UniProtKB/TrEMBL annotation:
<dbReference type="InterPro" id="IPR051466">
    <property type="entry name" value="D-amino_acid_metab_enzyme"/>
</dbReference>
<dbReference type="Pfam" id="PF01168">
    <property type="entry name" value="Ala_racemase_N"/>
</dbReference>
<feature type="domain" description="D-serine dehydratase-like">
    <location>
        <begin position="250"/>
        <end position="355"/>
    </location>
</feature>
<feature type="domain" description="Alanine racemase N-terminal">
    <location>
        <begin position="13"/>
        <end position="195"/>
    </location>
</feature>
<dbReference type="InterPro" id="IPR026956">
    <property type="entry name" value="D-ser_dehydrat-like_dom"/>
</dbReference>
<dbReference type="Pfam" id="PF14031">
    <property type="entry name" value="D-ser_dehydrat"/>
</dbReference>
<dbReference type="InterPro" id="IPR001608">
    <property type="entry name" value="Ala_racemase_N"/>
</dbReference>
<protein>
    <submittedName>
        <fullName>Alanine racemase</fullName>
    </submittedName>
</protein>
<comment type="similarity">
    <text>Belongs to the DSD1 family.</text>
</comment>
<dbReference type="InterPro" id="IPR029066">
    <property type="entry name" value="PLP-binding_barrel"/>
</dbReference>
<keyword id="KW-0456">Lyase</keyword>
<dbReference type="InterPro" id="IPR042208">
    <property type="entry name" value="D-ser_dehydrat-like_sf"/>
</dbReference>
C-alpha cells in the first residue's frame, strides 16, 4: 500500500500516467501542426497546470471566470473561457483582463453589444459554432448572426475577433464510425468558415475541443488548434468509446470497505454520488456500471483480470458486484480503488487529489474536509 493511510474516500492521481497522456497529446498536436490549448475543466489544478508546461503548452482553456482567476497567477499567454459569456460578469472580466490576456466565447448579439459597451481592456473572442451537437453555439449556416456579432464587436477596439470554436460533445456518446462522421462535419464547418472570413480576418484560427476526436482521429485539415480536456485523466467513458485503454486512466478513488456480503457477492464501499458523481455506463447486459474496481499497489493500481464494478450508488454508499477472487481476498477495513465513469465530475466532487507518495494536490473546488495520515 502507500506511505500514508487512507481513512476516507480519497482521489488518487498517478502523475506518471497523467504526464504520459499529456505527452501523447502534445506529440500528436505537433505531428499534425496543431496548437494544443487544453481545457483545464477536467483537473482544475495548479499543480497539473505546472506539469502541462513540460509539454510546450502556453495557452489554456477554462470553463468559467472563477477558473480563469484561479489559473491567472500562472501567467499563461492566454486563458480562453470556453462557455457562452455570462453578461453578469462583465465587471469581473474587466478586472481580470486589466493584467491578463483573456478570450471569451460569444453566441449572440446581445452579449456582444454589452461587451462592446462596457469592455475597458483588450479581450479576444471566439464565435462558438454549433455543427450538430445542439447544446449551444451559432448554427453553422447562420451567417447573418455571425456577421452581426462581428459588426457589433468592431464598435469597440478592445473586443478582438480570434476565430471559430466547435465543441462536438456528441462524440462522447458515439461509436467510432459516428465519431469519424462527426469529426468530418466539424472539419468541414471550420474549413468553410475560415475560407469565408479569412480575407477580412487573416489572423483568424479554428479550434476543436472534444477528447474523442482529438484522441482517435488523424486528419485535422481545416483545424488550427485543439482544446481537449478529459484526455489528461481519461475515464471509463473514454475507454468504452475507444479513446484510451483502462491503463491510461490517471485517477482512481481510494474507497474503504465497510461491509462484505459474501452470499450476495457484494462489497459495500464508502464511495457514493458525492464522491464519484452519478454518471453511469450501461453494460452490454443492460446492467448499470458506476465505476470499476482496481487493486491499489505501491506504484499505483492494477486492473484485475475479472471485472468487479459498482452496480449501485447512493449519496455515500457504493455496492460492488464482486468477482469471487476479489471478495475472497479482501476484508472489512481494506481499501479498494474505483476507476471513475467521468473523471471531470469525480474530480469536481472530491475537490483535491493525493499523489501516490501522499502529497496533497490542489483543486479549484478545494475541499478541506478530507482526513489523511
Amino acid at each position: 500500500m502507500y506511505s500514508f493511510s487512507v481513512t476516507s474516500p480519497t482521489l488518487l492521481i498517478n502523475e506518471d500516467i497523467c504526464r504520459q497522456n499529456l505527452r501523447k497529446m502534445s506529440e500528436k498536436a505537433k505531428k499534425h501542426g496543431l496548437e494544443l490549448i487544453p481545457h483545464f475543466k477536467t483537473h482544475q489544478s495548479l499543480k497539473v497546470g505546472e506539469w502541462c508546461r513540460s509539454y510546450n503548452i502556453q495557452e489554456i482553456t477554462v470553463s468559467s471566470i472563477d477558473m480563469a482567476s484561479y489559473f491567472a497567477p500562472q501567467n499563461w499567454q492566454n486563458i480562453h473561457i470556453a462557455f457562452p459569456f455570462n453578461p453578469r460578469e462583465v465587471q469581473r472580466l474587466n478586472e481580470l483582463s486589466e493584467k491578463h490576456s483573456l478570450s471569451v466565447q460569444l453566441v449572440n448579439e446581445e452579449v456582444t453589444a454589452l461587451l462592446a459597451e462596457k469592455l475597458k481592456y483588450k479581450v479576444g473572442f471566439f464565435i462558438e459554432i454549433d455543427a450538430g451537437y445542439g447544446r449551444t453555439g451559432v448554427e453553422v449556416s447562420d451567417f447573418g448572426l455571425i456577421e452581426k456579432i462581428m459588426r457589433m464587436a468592431k464598435t469597440n477596439p478592445n473586443l478582438q475577433f480570434k476565430g471559430f470554436y466547435i465543441h462536438a460533445g456528441h462524440t462522447y456518446h458515439a461509436t467510432l464510425n459516428e465519431i469519424e462522421e462527426i469529426h468530418q462535419q466539424t472539419k468541414a464547418a471550420l474549413h468553410m468558415l475560415k475560407d469565408k472570413y479569412f480575407t477580412e480576418f487573416p489572423g483568424l484560427v479554428t479550434r476543436s475541443g472534444d477528447t474523442p476526436s482529438c484522441s482517435l482521429m488523424d486528419d485535422f485539415e481545416g483545424i488550427d488548434q485543439i482544446g481537449p480536456g478529459n484526455f489528461v485523466f481519461y475515464d471509463l467513458t473514454q475507454a468504452s468509446i475507444g479513446s484510451c485503454e483502462k491503463e491510461d486512466i490517471a485517477v482512481a478513488l481510494a474507497a474503504p470497505i465497510v461491509d462484505i456480503k459474501k452470499s450476495k457477492g457484494e462489497i459495500l464501499l464508502h464511495a457514493g454520488g458525492v464522491h464519484l458523481s452519478k454518471d453511469v455506463l450501461t453494460q452490454a447486459n443492460g446492467k448499470k456500471n458506476f465505476g470499476e474496481v482496481v487493486l491499489l499497489t505501491k506504484s499505483g493500481w492494477s486492473i484485475p483480470s475479472k471485472t468487479s464494478y459498482l452496480k449501485s450508488i447512493s449519496q455515500e454508499h457504493g455496492i460492488v458486484q464482486a468477482d469471487a477472487t476479489l471478495i475472497n481476498n479482501v476484508k472489512i477495513g481494506d481499501v479498494l480503488g474505483v476507476l471513475p465513469i467521468h473523471s471531470c465530475m469525480t474530480a469536481d466532487c472530491m475537490g483535491s487529489y493525493m499523489t501516490l507518495s501522499g502529497e496533497l494536490v490542489d483543486h479549484l473546488k478545494g475541499n478541506p474536509n478530507h482526513s489523511y495520515k
